[in-house]
Amino acid sequence: MSAKTSGELCKKDKLIKRSNLIEDGNPARYRLQTTTDNQNQSKSYRKIIFGERDPEKAHIIILIVGETGTGKTTLINTMINYTCGVQREDKIWIEITDDQSKETSAHSQTSIITVYGVYIPESSLDLTIIDTPGYGDTRGTGHDKEIARSLQHLCKSDNLVQQINAVCLVIKADQTRLTDRQQYIFDAVQCLFGKDIEENIVLLFTHSNGLPPKKALTAVKEAKVKCAVDEENFKPVYFLFDNCQSETLEEEYQTTQEQSWNLSFKGAAQLFKFLEKINSKTLNLTQEVLKHRKQLEANISNLQSRVQEIELKQNEMKQTQEALKKHKQDVEEKDNFEYTVEVPYKVKIDINRAASKKALCCTVCEENCHYPGCWWVTNLAWCEVMRKKHCTVCTNKCHYSKHVKEGKIYAIKTREEKMTYEDLKKKYENKMSDYESLVSKLKDELHELEKEKLKLLIEAYHSVESLEKIALNTGSLFILEHIDFLIEKLKEIKEPEKAEHLENIKETKNQESLENMKKSTKK
């Protein structure tokens, strides 16, 4: 027996000793004896680790994304077997994945992302795979936003994941189009990253027969999925995998099953060869995108309330102007008179629990700074809208200690109030008692309110513009009513070019949705 063969047997034996037998057979299925960091339910991710990370060794980090049923679990285990050096002749199959449905309901709510780490001393590299189970499933967009937040938390709080080598989009090789859910998933994932990650996004086609997946590639092209492109043939970078490696070997199908094994391990070999050539990307820009995204959404939401309040104040002043005009003679003769105006005021109301459990509000400005979607509870300084312990959203950019997190938000309402000429004079401290002075003062205040409104709208537009420059996929980020609101107000303040730019973003996204709907109908 050669030294090489002896070494391979020794490696295989070591793996088996550090694994638990799941099912005897050909191949025999083993699950690696891992350590699981899933006891702390406050974490929004969990880690399943085999071995100990070697800082001197090459470290490959992969993010796996795909719809349920595309074969992600087998794909992850295929990469693990390839990294472990398992051969078909070994007649074993190594697994690291488990069933999250067995977790307690309390924990399954927080363990949205799973980080698998395989660190084998005999291997030339260490491998970390980040899986996003349930992305795009029936739990809806609220669950998907939790995944985005979990990924952000993982990048910020875990030293293990500070860069990424590849984002792998998993698709069945026989698909003729992307489903609406797949389109949604891929759009949502691309929204998480900066533009620098595009050359690290690759396609993994599962359930492949080894032939070029022409129809699936056409579906990817039609869906306008951003990914790495082969410089020679100008086609998306992709790798083929079958999903039969763990199935029991049968003599009459030996040739077919051998082809299946070889296809998948060839795909894994090509993928890791590609990853050796491509530069990994730090997640600094990704974190910046996520932060900008949260601040933008919070800014626009806050902006709507502030513009609404300004417009209600403007309406109150216009009603006062009309009253002065009507009672001009009374003013000149300094006689008291009464008039009615609609006065805006703020109240605290209970929030929609389905949208957000709690909201971050400023008690000084009496504004909603982060709603919906605020999730930090223990320390308000950690909220996404805070920078250097001060809020980036509320009017006075107040210290985080001036904020509260509760199940209520501020709402603006109006009520009719009786006012008198004496009340109006007191408001201006009797300094403006003649008609012309009062009218002039009201005009000045209306002008100041209009300037403030203009400033807020331009600031919001620049936030969108800034995000567009760094985000890989901008269109999916915006709630359409926010975009519509901003477009309408930009037109009002005579900024047609800015309004047109936002309309183009909206139109592009609507056109993509329409095309996907037509394909779905034809299917």
From TrEMBL:
Q: Which UniProt keywords apply?
A: Coiled coil, Nucleotide-binding
Q: Name one GO molecular function term.
A: GTP binding
The segments labelled Disordered in the record are 501-523
Q: Does the keyword DNA repair apply?
A: no
Where is the AIG1-type G domain positioned along the sequence? 62-256
Family membership: Belongs to the TRAFAC class TrmE-Era-EngA-EngB-Septin-like GTPase superfamily. AIG1/Toc34/Toc159-like paraseptin GTPase family. IAN subfamily.
Cross-referenced PANTHER family, in alphabetical order? G DOMAIN-CONTAINING PROTEIN (PTHR32046), IMMUNE-ASSOCIATED NUCLEOTIDE-BINDING PROTEIN 10-LIKE (PTHR32046:SF11)
InterPro entries given in the database record: G_AIG1, P-loop_NTPase, Sigma_54_int_dom_ATP-bd_1
Q: Which PROSITE patterns match?
A: SIGMA54_INTERACT_1
Q: Does the keyword Transit peptide apply?
A: no
Q: What start-end ranges are recorded for coiled-coil regions in this protein?
A: 286-334, 411-459
Q: What is this protein called?
A: AIG1-type G domain-containing protein
